[in-house]
Amino acid sequence: MRALLVYDASIRTAAVLGPVLQRKLDVVLFPLLEDEALRGRLISDIRESPSAVVDTLDSARLVELQVDELGACAEWSASLGASQVNGRSLKEHLLIPGFPLSAWWLGHISERNPLKTSAFLCMAQLAAVRKAIAGQNFECLIVAVGDPVMRRSLALLGQEAKLHLNVVPLNRQLSLRQRLLAIAGKAGTAGEMLRACYTWAFFVRRSLIARFVMRGSARCAGDPESSLFVSHFAAVDKSAADKGIFRNKYFLPLQELMAREGRGITWLLLYVPIYGYSFREACILARRFSAHGERLTVLEECLSVWGAFVALALWLRISVRAIWLYPRIDRKALYPDSVGPASEPIVRALWWSSHCGPTAIEGLLYLLMFRAYVKQSPSHKDLLYFFENYPLEKALLSVGRKNWPKTRFLAYQHTTIPRNLFPYFCSHRDTKLSNLPEDMPLPDHVIANGRVARSLLTASAFPGVVEAEAIRYFYIGRGWSDTSVVNSDRPTILIAGSHDRKEMLSTMRLVKARIDTLGSYDVWVKGHPGMPLGPILGEAGIHPLPENWRIRDEDISLLLPQVWAVLVPASTVAVEALAWGCEVICPVFPDVLGMNPLAGHEEYYHRVYGAQEFSNILTQIMQSRPSEARRASGKDFIRTYWNLDQKMPYWLELLFGQGGAASNRTAGQNHDETITSPGSARVDFPGLC
Prior knowledge:
By secondary structure, the protein is of the alpha/beta class. The chain is 43% helix and 13% strand. It has a seven-stranded parallel sheet, sandwiched between helices. Strand 11 (382-386), helix 18 (391-403) and strand 12 (408-412) form a beta-alpha-beta unit.
């Protein structure tokens, strides 16, 4: 009898051997993680029994194929939002009293962001297991998966396929945080609501810190003739910050352009945990900039006690409505086609977290904070923010448009668009406006930073798609003329860190499994600014570091010109590395929904599945240093991917009506039309999703 064993890191081998011995099973492994050492131990233990491991399925490839099919989740989400209950769509049922916005747009289901929820990865894994069962003759399904939601979905899948089902006990060596999250997961709606209360208290605490530190020094200050820039904080030039000068790393070339053109900037700052600043330290830094004349506000300053309790009341109302709605939703609309009814536990958990959990209260708090800022500040000529199509952007747009009707709202796509970052890929039904309060809030213009991004954003029919220069990546163009450091004589590989802990851990386990391959090379490891590297290296078993390894803290722009190859799971570094002719290796894992920005441009990188493929590709690459032909090819691609014209004619035309970028026009406009007027006409294009 053949059995499919689906497992993750929580598997306990002794528990698996019970059903294997009892039924005398031949076992096929379906790992939901990248850990060759664990797989090796599991195979060894099972082979000691009368059974044999028939095969190990290439789960990374199988899951990746299903992730590609999840592109249709945009249509699933749009259909679900439009589905009717008692003659009204779900979007209408979830309208927020007193606001021109539906809570539908504040949840995970509409956002579809795999960086914030594992639900879409779970759907892909479930669909991959379903394909594996359909394609082979299995009689038994053994489930050794820690996530209780995924475990229930796999059990339903086994019942649907009429397999003998064994859900085995797990390794329960969990941290306190993992135990608390597991308890909340089992508690369902009640657990999500408890987590929401914690999130509410967390924001209230931040508000108190921001108000105490800033002391109203610049809150809601602004010049009506200035532009309002909404920016992540605190990614700043530290040497300038020591002198009280605000140089925003994300906006710096545009900041300098505005100064040259004589237009002021008012800043609305959104804290992100980056470059080692705590929230309090970021507020202290903002106050220092304010004392030197910058017009700025930390968003949490705008959350009053009254606003916090209004958000709480609105959340309770929406939670009750969501609880009432869920059992009344048409089941045909509720489940994505690729996974079917077995996904019910995943979809149910996604619904509760979207409309009863932390995501729901967080979106409402942002809505109240943005409204407080907008009502107490003069309107601005332009409002520019980073476009990622997140709920907080929709909260900003909904209250901004209502209170500042003459302001032009500009959304700047400032980095890359990975194929699996679903918020960028929307159904035309969502981006088509009907002048109804339940419409998705959208800006006047979506600004792409190159031709590739412009094409992708146009395909989703976002409004007013235009192109402007990629201001964050001008250093690449400047670096091309600097030949002082180009690719060291000794073969060197750079391991670029991911912001996702699970992905970085899988990467280091991949390296650990073939660490002997790296013995002849220099190995540099560069962590992500938002993810500590030390604990991950320890957990992966790479401690102490081998003699040929070095931890590098320098800016990535200083490291890339010196290396031969880059191992990068999901980062803009994959594109940047091409500028210096580096070979790019992007691993694929079954437990990570990969955000490779080069996906779709296969000729420019090496995609690897598993440790053996990584070892083979790396050996091949390190036989010769990067060539001039490779470097030239990378430069040509990057010029297509990003617009690196440092004279910034597109930004000049967009913001000031000058610069001569006559060819840059909103999608669907004629060449003699301008792009500076808000509310330009829209044209629908064939979608990607």
